[in-house]
């Protein structure tokens, strides 16, 4: 479903644009994803709308069939990239699983600000972005996904999320379509 509206208090959630992840071999150039996320970030900040910057520092407990990484992570692995230009007013969330809401206080912080809708960007489409969007939906937030401000290393996961999962969670649109709605909303 195309993006058609934004609630009065919509927050932007940028997932995992951090030093240790942006060097992965993504299917879309990461520079474009960063630039579009930054464009949205600037638009939300200019309108005094909440911005959430999410990073990941570990793994959820439990067994999986996939072996855990054993190599040491670089000291700056979990640091947000400088292009995001974190501000004191930004909400910062450090997660240890795919989604930004699991085992964090993000839901309470957003609801305390009166947030009823979230726009989600970042990496990876089929994991961090999708899990965050699913959790937001399950918690009652309206969900919008900025589909040109996300990417994945797995083209099949990216396509599956866009075609099959996101339409069931909310609306999807381009960075420009979301900004156009922000502009329209400001003139009402």
TrEMBL record:
Protein keywords: Hydrolase
SUPFAM superfamilies documented for this protein: Isochorismatase-like hydrolases
Isochorismatase-like domain ranges (all copies): 10-176
Gene3D superfamilies noted in UniProt: Isochorismatase-like
GO molecular-function term, one example from the UniProt record: hydrolase activity
Pfam families xrefs: Isochorismatase
Source organism, top-level taxon: Bacteria
InterPro entries per the UniProt record, alphabetical: Isochorismatase-like_dom (IPR000868), Isochorismatase-like_hydrls (IPR050272), Isochorismatase-like_sf (IPR036380)
Protein name, per record: Hydrolase
Species of the source: Pseudomonas aylmerensis
């Amino acid at each position: 479903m195309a993006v058609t509206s934004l609630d009065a208090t919509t927050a932007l959630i940028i997932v995992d644009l951090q030093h240790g992840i942006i060097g992965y071999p993504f299917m879309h150039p990461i520079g474009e994803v960063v630039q579009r996320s930054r464009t949205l970030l600037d638009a939300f900040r200019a309108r005094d709308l909440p911005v959430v910057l999410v990073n990941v520092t570990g793994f959820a407990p439990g067994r999986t069939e996939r072996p855990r990484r054993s190599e040491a992570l670089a000291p700056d692995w979990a640091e947000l990239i400088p292009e995001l230009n974190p501000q004191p007013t930004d909400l910062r969330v450090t997660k240890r699983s795919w989604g930004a809401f699991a085992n964090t206080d993000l839901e309470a912080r957003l609801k305390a600000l009166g947030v009823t809708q979230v726009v989600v960007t970042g990496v990876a489409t089929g994991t961090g972005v999708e899990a965050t969007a699913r959790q937001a939906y399950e918690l009652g937030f309206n969900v919008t996904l900025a589909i040109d401000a996300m990417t994945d290393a797995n083209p099949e996961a990216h396509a599956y999320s866009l075609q099959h999962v996101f339409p069931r969670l909310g609306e999807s649109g381009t960075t420009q379509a979301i900004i156009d709605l922000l502009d329209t909303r400001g003139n009402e």
